[in-house]
Structure formats: C-alpha cells, structure tokens
Amino acid sequence: MRQLAEPAMDRPAPEAGSLRGSNQSGMRAHNERLVLSLLRQHDGLSKSDIARVTGLSNQTVSVIMRSLENEGLLLRGEPVRGRIGQPSVPMSLSADGAFFLGLKIGRRSADLMLVDFLGTVRATRRQVYRYPTPSNVVAFVAAALPAVLDTLPSASRDRVGGMGIAMPFQLWNWVRYIGAPQSEMDEWRNRDIQTEIAALTGMPVHIQNDATAACGAELVFGTGEKPKDFLYFYFGTFIGGGLVLNGQLFTGRSGNAGGVGPMPVPGPDGTLQRLFDVASMSVLAEAMEAAGESSDHLWHQHAEWHVSAPVLDRWLGSASEGIAYAALSASALIELEAVMIDGWMPTAIRAEITRRTHVALMRLDLSGVEPPQVREGTVGADARALGAAAIPLAQRYLIDPNALTREA
C-alpha cells in the first residue's frame, strides 16, 4: 500500500500564477478541475490560498469548494488561528471521495487494482500466466472484479469512476520473445478488449500503453518534487518508458511516444543492440535459466529476487550502461531535467541500477550536453496498474490538456 502524500507544511507554497482559472461564466467544470489539481499538488490549502494562486475571485472559490465538499471530494481541516482576520480553514482531498480501477495486462501477468482518490491501493488481484490472451484476461476480470468491489462499503460503490487499462500495444508482435503461439496471440488483432471490458464492467474504460501509464502514475501519484521534463524507464518483462514535457505526459501521435525499448545502445560486446535486448527483465531471466537458476519467482512477486551475484552483476552492468546511452541520446535532442528509473523489482535493486546508471552516464562524453539527474521513481513496482487507475481519475478530475486516451 502506498503512503499518503506528505503534509503541506513540508512542501513549498504554490506560486501565484502557476495555475490560472477563469471567473467567466461557463468555466465551472474547468475551475473545479483546477482546484482539485492544485489540492493534489499541495495538500491542505485554504480558500484564500487557492484564490491567490489561481486568480479566481474569493466568491468563485467559495462556491467551488462548497460544491466539491458537498460531493464528498474534499475534507475540511482544523482552523488555523493566530493570524489577522478570520481563521484559515485548510481543505484537502478526501480519500473516499472517488475510486478507480486499474487493469495492467502484462506479458507474464495481469493485475486488477482498486485505488482511492489519493492513490492508496484498497484492493488488488493478480494472475500469472505464460502468455496473455484476450479470453483469459476477460475471464480474469470477470472473476476478480466482484471480489475487488466487495471490499468497498455498498454506499461507496457508486463512487467508482471508471477503469483504466495499461497494456503493451501490438501484443501479437511479441510472439517470439515470450514463446506464445502466433495463432492465439493473433486474437489481439481482432478483439476490442476495451469495449469488451466496458460492457463487462458497465463503466467507462480507457486504454493506454503500459509503460506510458507507469510514467503517468509518477505524475499523478508520485511523491517529492517532480521535474518538468523527464524521461522515465520502467523495468518489466521488457523495458519501456514514457516522456514528460513541461509537466505533462507526452504520448505522441500513436500514443507510444517515449517507448525507449527500441533505442539503439552498445551491447556487452560493443555492437549496437536495442535497449530492451540488454536491459529487460526477460534478459535477466534468460541468463538465470542458462546458469541453472529458476526465474519463475520474478513474475510472481517483486519484493525479493533469488539470483546469484555473478548473474545479477552482469545484468545490472549491461542494463545501467544501456540506460546511460539512451539518456545521453535523449538529452542531445531534448533538454531533460531528469531520468527516472522504476520497475517490477526490489527497491534495493532499483537503487543500485540508478546509482550505476549515474556513474555510467558521467563516464560518457557529455560535450555540448547538460546531463540529466538520474533519480529513482517514487511509485514502485505497481506503477503500471496505478497508472491505469490514474487515467480515469485524470479524465474526470484533473487539468490535462493532452488527450491521453480513447474512451469506450
């Protein structure tokens, strides 16, 4: 379960003008999203704080806050006394104000997750398989969804605001990498999984690339100061990524922008290879099997890896070198503040890959390039499922100019 956001007193105060609203009529929905987005960034703001930052009138802010509180989306804090005038009353998001479902469809497993308004996981179900098929995924959702929803009080079930699906695009093209029959994987060409699950659940369903969704989770639910421009790497069966520009997820024309896996990088023998051929978890699994070590546990859980030191060290070396080259190439094109690394792995392994990537990047020729910071992600192994749940949340409640998804 994720930790709640840090109290506002530990964060810098929002700057006036960073988010702007409109006092014109017909802008209420926009302004409500604006207020909710601001409160997500800075927990515990007063009405006067919000008016100052957004440029909205005190009356407009009062109407919006009263409406959101009546809807159960906001909580009223204790009055802050000791200042001139009326006591300031901080308002914050209510965890029970809304709930969202996230479905991660991976090459080795599927996860269904129920998340509250703050991003805390309330329930989760998982299925591990050799390879994914549409029928198995739909059957998994049909079986797991009632149990997940039963964890909510009956009065809260109408607050579930939709489901997001995070999955690799064009799964039928990955047959030779995951050892699946082409005939079964070709089902993904003809099945509209988004529409099928929307009909099954009776709620809006949105779909997004899995690594892009993980990056989105870092934006919506991540903790700490977020860079405005960063490249995100997520370690799964295959490494993937996402791109954030000016504080917004950039998905590109096909929704696959920031897909770092095909980036050419030097392999262990010095020849150019694709990043997912040197840095994916599938590469580690193959090395473990070749050394007589079972890799099955990698797909069942992420908290602890049982892998010999020599095998792990070789993989860590090639993965971090590959990310360093990919980060340099991206930084030559885009001025990145940071590179963020996360994945389905123990936190100690994530920390070590981050450390080694920084060292490897500093060894490269950085002439003419301002090297980005190399940082750990803050969401963790469940970033893809959390990112899936963040899609309907963003669609309904956040300011997000980018059209991130298609709605069923």
Compact overview of the structure:
This protein is α/β, with parallel strands linked by helices and 408 residues long.
Report on the architecture of this protein.
It is a single chain. The chain has 408 residues and is of the alpha/beta class. The chain has helices spanning 28-41, 47-54, 58-70, 134-149, 175-178, 182-185, 187-190, 193-201, 210-221, 276-279, 281-290, 297-300, 309-333, 347-363, 383-397, and strands at residues 74-76, 91-93, 99-105, 109-116, 121-128, 160-167, 205-209, 230-235, 240-245, 248-250, 264-266, 272-274, 338-343, 373-376, 406-407. It folds into three domains: 8-81 and 89-93, Arc Repressor Mutant, subunit A (Orthogonal Bundle); 98-214 and 385-407, Nucleotidyltransferase, domain 5 (2-Layer Sandwich); 225-377, ATPase, nucleotide binding domain (Nucleotidyltransferase, domain 5, 2-Layer Sandwich), CATH 3.30.420. The strands form four sheets. A six-stranded mixed β-sheet has the order 5-4-3-6-7-15, with helices on both faces. Mean pLDDT is 87; it is low at 1-18, 21-27 and 401-408.
What characteristics describe this protein?
single chain; 408 residues; alpha/beta; Nucleotidyltransferase, domain 5; 3 domains; six-stranded mixed beta sheet; five-stranded mixed beta sheet; disordered N terminus; disordered C terminus
Fold topology:
Blueprint: H1 28-41, H2 47-54, H3 58-70, E1 74-76, E2 91-93, E3 99-105, E4 109-116, E5 121-128, H4 134-149, E6 160-167, H5 175-178, H6 182-185, H7 187-190, H8 193-201, E7 205-209, H9 210-221, E8 230-235, E9 240-245, E10 248-250, E11 264-266, E12 272-274, H10 276-279, H11 281-290, H12 297-300, H13 309-333, E13 338-343, H14 347-363, E14 373-376, H15 383-397, E15 406-407
